[in-house]
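Dear support,

I submitted the protein below through the web form. The confirmation email said the job was done, but the results page showed an empty box. After a refresh the structure appeared. I'm attaching both so you can tell me whether what I see now is the final result or a partial one.
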Amino acid sequence: MTTPIWNFLQGYQLEGMSRFHMPGHKGFGPLGCEALDITEIEGADSLYEAAGIIAESEQNAASLFGSGATFYSTEGSSQCIRAMLYLALTNRPAGTPPVVVAARNVHKAFIYAAALLDFEPVWLWPEGETDSLCACPVTPEGLERTLAGLDVSPAAVYVTSPDYLGNMADISGLAEVCRRRGAPLLVDNAHGAYLRFLDPSRHPLDLGADMCCDSAHKTLPVLTGGAYLHIGKNAPAAFREEAKNALALFGSTSPSYLTLASLDLCNAALAGEEADRIRETAGNLTAVRQGLAGQGWILTGDEPLKLTFDAAASGWDGVALANLFRTGGVEAEYADVDNVVLMASGSTDQEALRIVVDAPGLAVPKPGRRRPALSPAMGERVLSIREALFAPQETVPAAQSLGRICGTPLVSCPPAVPIAVSGERIGPEAVALFRKYGVETVAVLRKNFC
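What the results page shows now:
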């Protein structure tokens, strides 16, 4: 497969041009990559008006992912989340209000998009019991009930799958409901770019999603910030036609050509041996899970390239278990009091997997501790997200936030899932979650404002 961006950067480096253009390092410096770091010079194409090498590279990516169109982001899935919500909202049926039905475990980028685009979410709350902020199981039947109960036609339905703990939604079933109801399905697939290359594919586009975002850098050999906005083949044509403008609305006018080059080279890797390595690693992780289970560890989730340790069920504090992994030479992706998440990829070799099996051997699983189901923080909606996020705010200790109105959702990344959402009155359930997840301060609206 061609690598037009990479080829151009190499050719320009060899030409030895005197660089009287940005960036200021002029192609030289201590990092070693400066010669390949350029701006939109002649022949380099322009990300948001792509008609040359970037357009060719994006077409290569579209063919690999089987999409109607694929567009690059150098600012992660956050940019793509905002863009696909913009596309859904600006192409909603005439006369309908800006409403998006969304599973509550959204990334905070969704909340910021709601403020910028001035729409209100109708939340899909977890069906049945859940013991983690990151998880929000939603069934097709539950989605059907929610849509049937609305007196408006939503601009879109939005779900996160896989979630941070490796739980995967029934995208096929949800997509069928959305088709019947005439609502496009949008999927935050930030953790699942590799799903396309399993056998069979488990990628949202192949399961019926109309649009999705993939953080290429999370699970593919791409530099941090590299991401895709995918448009499904059966999605409205306007989504494809207006995608570049949507991305430009939320993106820098100075995209990183180093990140673009990594996306470009990833195409060639996926067309070559990388897809085989992904499938091999997914298979190897099955044996790893069996080995860990044999030691007594409890693992959860069904995402093929994640290992999610249920630390609580194994008698451990998750943060302490993550520290134990670190001592054994393994750095986890995420840990909270109940869970530890390890993320693998096609670049994870057998030696690394062996270390994963050996590292927790330094400890012994103990009798599990009971995790009570979480009570969702269904805060009273007082203001719109936009009104609250742009209102005067102050930061108070989380323990003193009861009854106050949430301003900016202060949440770390990972997992970047807000406990309370801007404009909601903070109730006792939210305060309990702040305590559980170690949130010490909360941004609330000033008392003299509301």
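Response: this is the final, complete result; the empty box was a page-load delay. The longest helix spans residues 274-295.
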